[in-house]
Design goal:
- Helix content is 45%, strand content 19%.
- The chain contains 8 helices and 6 strands; from the N terminus they run βαβαβααβαβαααβ.
- It has helices spanning 15-24, 40-49, 63-70, 75-87, 106-115, 130-134, 136-139, 143-159, and strands at residues 2-4, 29-33, 53-58, 92-98, 120-125, 165-169.
- Strands 1-2-3-4-5-6 form a 6-stranded parallel beta sheet.
- Helix 1 (15-24) runs parallel beside helix 2.
- The radius of gyration is 16 Å and the shape is globular.
């Protein structure tokens, strides 16, 4: 397996060559991306080079909150990337970092992953390092919020078994 991550791997000029060589070596190639610098033509080229799957990060279901957390107007571009992946039949994993600001919307996040045709959803509670550690007071949820979100994810995991694999990463 080759998981292309970063920083942002889409900023590499040689990404297609890396995917092509990994495919030639019979490696499973997964692109882990914000999706921001992606356009449909490049996605087509990456698929033609042998890209097997994409993990796309989303911040929230609400555009304003998602853009605020991303630090740029990115939500609409990320949703477009998810639609292209579905159109091109490239398996999609959605990854969402959970925190106080979006934890109450885990049900909506799951519904969005369903609508986007994701095969996997990773709900990862924030790891308090770097930027997140410096902003812990604004991000840290209550125990009750985490427990409620975990219960919503567990119910959805049972309901969607075989259609959407839901991973709930417990906070450390």
């Amino acid at each position: 397996q080759l998981h292309l991550t970063g920083g942002e791997p889409l900023l590499r000029d040689d990404l297609e060559a890396l995917v092509e060589e990994a495919h030639r070596l019979d490696l499973y190639v997964n692109l882990i991306t914000s999706g921001i610098p992606l356009d449909r033509d490049r996605l087509v080229r990456l698929r033609e080079c042998g890209l097997d799957a994409v993990q796309l990060s989303l911040q929230d279901t609400e555009p304003e909150a998602a853009d605020r957390m991303a630090g740029t107007a990115a939500h609409v571009r990320k949703l477009a990337a998810a639609r292209w992946l579905r159109e091109l039949h490239i398996p999609l994993t959605i990854s969402v970092v959970l925190h106080r600001g979006n934890l109450s919307r885990v049900g909506e996040i799951i519904a969005l992953a369903e609508r986007l045709g994701a095969s996997r959803l990773e709900l990862a509670n924030t790891l308090y390092l770097g930027w997140a550690l410096a902003n812990r007071a604004a991000l840290l949820p209550t125990r009750e919020q985490v427990d409620e979100a975990r219960a919503v994810a567990a119910a959805a995991r049972a309901r969607l078994a075989g259609a959407l694999d839901i991973i709930f990463v417990t906070p450390a």
